[in-house]
Amino acid sequence: ESLAGIARTGLGFTESLFERERYEEVLHIAADIAAAAQALRRSITSRSGTGDAGGTWKVRADENGKVTEAGVGVQEDAAGFEGGAADALVTEWMRSVGRGVAGYVTPKVAVGAVVGNDAGEILLIQRADSGIWLYPTGWADIGYSASEVVVKEVKEETGILVEPVRLIAV
């Protein structure tokens, strides 16, 4: 889900055709991974009911490296998972892509960092999008805590490495 989120966010923000193609490819790879994981879960679940949850994990791929079958103790005549499962995921994920901020794949949680020094000064940056002076801010990315995002945003926007001390507000 994190990989798909990164791809959908990229699709929402990029203006470059080349980058759109790369993000779409990443989205397809994420769907292949999700479909293979789903097939493995089904295989493990079906075998655990028989008392035979062990066995050899097998994955089959076509000549392009796309997973075509996955499971525990896959038999030579096993049908594997439907190739359409990954395609359905891509279709569902693509529907969620919007433009700009609407395309940012997150619960729309933003963070801001109030960074001070020993002289009692507060760090402000001039926003590239509006020209307004403000403390460093940014959208929270999927899979990262608020403190991790704060550290990342301050580093990206100022080059300064910070250590969060406390949460001020939610």
Per DSSP E runs of 2 or more residues, the count of β-strands stands at 6
Largest sheet, described in full?
Answer: 2 strands, antiparallel
Distance between the termini: 25 Å
So how many helices?
A: 4
Domains (count): 2
How would you state the average pLDDT, rounded?
77
Give the neighbour order of strands across the main sheet: 1-2
Percent helix range: 40-55%
Shape, per Cα inertia axes: elongated
| Unreliable residue runs | 72-82
Strand fraction band?
Answer: 5-15%
How big is the Rg?
22 Å
Pfam family, one: Nudix_N
Organism: mine drainage metagenome
GO molecular function: hydrolase activity
Protein name: NUDIX hydrolase
3D structure, described in words:
This protein is an alpha+beta fold and 170 residues long. It has 2 domains: 2-103, no CATH class; 110-158, no CATH class. The protein is 41% helix and 12% strand. The protein is built from 4 helices and 6 strands; from the N terminus they run H-H-E-E-H-E-E-E-E-H. The strands form 3 sheets. The chain has a two-stranded antiparallel ribbon. A hairpin with a 6-residue loop joins strand 4 (125-126) and strand 5 (133-134). Helix 1 runs antiparallel to helix 2 and helix 2 crosses helix 3 (84-95). The longest helix has 32 residues, at 17-48. 19% of the residues are buried.
